[in-house]
Design a protein that fits this description.
alpha+beta; 3-stranded antiparallel beta sheet; globular; transmembrane helix
């Protein structure tokens, strides 16, 4: 049993490292963006908070939890809820740009990497 778990870990190691690298990169970039934003004199004119529903492809509870936590740990975003059928993840963003770009960025970034780790 232990050997099987080790084999699975070794096989998934590249996916785990890719996810970790993406998270660290997004953490640094987002922290810099939020720090710059809050230091602006016209902060109230610059923030555009919004709730966004992010479509999820079928995933396990563990992978949805991992995705939600990664989003919450990234400055400027917060995971709020998951729909009962687990098809949508509701997030709050500090500054809303283009909704389609945000959805595509999460799908091709965190969600794709989390799927690779949990497949």
């Amino acid at each position: 049993m232990m050997l099987r778990a080790l084999k699975i870990f070794v096989i998934r190691l590249p996916a785990i490292l890719a996810l970790a690298w993406l998270f660290v990169r997004e953490l640094v970039i987002s922290a810099a963006k939020v720090a710059w934003l809050v230091m602006q004199p016209d902060l109230m004119n610059r923030i555009r908070p919004a709730f966004v529903a992010i479509p999820l492809s079928p995933q396990s509870d563990a992978s949805i939890t991992m995705l939600a936590n990664l989003i919450t740990l990234t400055p400027g975003t917060l995971s709020v809820d998951v729909s009962e059928d687990r098809s949508l993840l509701f997030i709050h963003v500090m500054t809303m740009g283009n909704k389609e770009d945000l959805v595509a960025e999460i799908a091709s970034g965190f969600e794709a990497r989390v799927k690779a780790v949990f497949q």
